[in-house]
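Attaching the record inline, Q. Sequence:
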Amino acid sequence: MRNALSLLGNSNRQSEMTTTIFIDGEAGTTGLQIRDRLAQRRDVKVLSLDHGRRKDPVARAEMLNQAEISILCLPDEASRQAVAMVDNPDARLIDASIAYRTDGDWVYGMAEYGPDQPAKITAAKRVTNPGCYACSSVAMVRPLVMAGIVPADFPVTLNAVSGYSGGGRKMIETFEDAASPGYTKSTIYLYALGLNHKHTDEIKVHGGLERRPLFVPSVGRFAQGLIVSLPLQLWALPGAATPTDVHEALADHYAPTSMVTIAGLAETATMDTLDPEALNGTDELRLHVFANEEHGQVVVAALLDNLGKGASGQAVQNMNLMCGLDQATGLKR
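Structure, as predicted:
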C-alpha cells in the first residue's frame, strides 16, 4: 500500500511539474503578448523581476541562469549582452531579436521549416525566433525552392505591408503620438528604400536562395496584421509550373497539425481582396495562391498577425516544443 501511495504521489508531482520561464524584456510589445499567452497556463511558471530591477544586469543575469528557458525580447545588441550573461550550461534561450537568425550554432525557430525541425527545436539549447516578415517569406519561398519550382538563383521579389506595431516603440509613436518628431498622418508608406532591410539576409539563407531577394516593405495605419506577397511569372520559371503545381508544393510541405494553413485554390479564386488584419488575434499563418492561368501569373500571399505567428505566438510555439509539449498548446488558430 505504501508503494502504491508513493507511486501515486510521484505521479501527481510529475503532473504538476512546471517549466520556469523568464521573459527578458517583458514590458515591451512582444514580451507583453507572450505573458498574455502564458497567463492562464499551469504547465509553466513565469519568473519576473520587479519594475525597478528589470534593467539591473546583476538581477537579469541571476534570472537568466535560474530559469529553465528564457525568452529574450530585446534589441539586437541587448540580446547579445544577455546571451553573454548566461553561464549555466542547462539554461536554454529563445531569442526574438535578429542577432542570431543566420548563426549556424542556433536552431532556426520555425517548426514548419522542415519535417525534422520540431525535433531540433525540442532538443535545442539556443533557438532563434523568426520575425514576421522573415517567417512569412520563408514559408512561401522555401517549399517552392525545395520542390524545384523556383530555382535557387531566381530573382525573387517580395512585397510586404505590416501594421505599425511590428516596428517597435519608435514606429508605434510615429503613428500614435502626435508629439513625436517623426509623427505621420500617412495611411501607408514604403520604407527601407536603401534596399538593405535587416530581414533580407535571413530570407535568403533560410529560403534556400543563392541571391538576395528584392524585399520591399511598407507600413500601414493599422496596429496589427501583415501580408507578404510573392509574385511569380510562371512563364519565366523552368519546368512549366502551373498554379496547381505551386499550390501542391506548398500543401505538401505543411502538415495539417502545423500553425501554417493553405487556402484552397477554389476558395482563393472567389476572393477579390485580402485583408491584412484578417488573422489578428491568432497564431496562424495562412498562405493563398492567387492565379491567372491565361497570363501564366501567380501571386502567393502570406497572411498573419505580426504579433502572433510573427513574434509572440512563434516564441510560445518554440517554448512548447522545448518543454516537450504539443507545439500548439495555448495558441489560437
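Residues 132-146 form the longest helix (15 residues). The radius of gyration is 21 Å.

More tomorrow.
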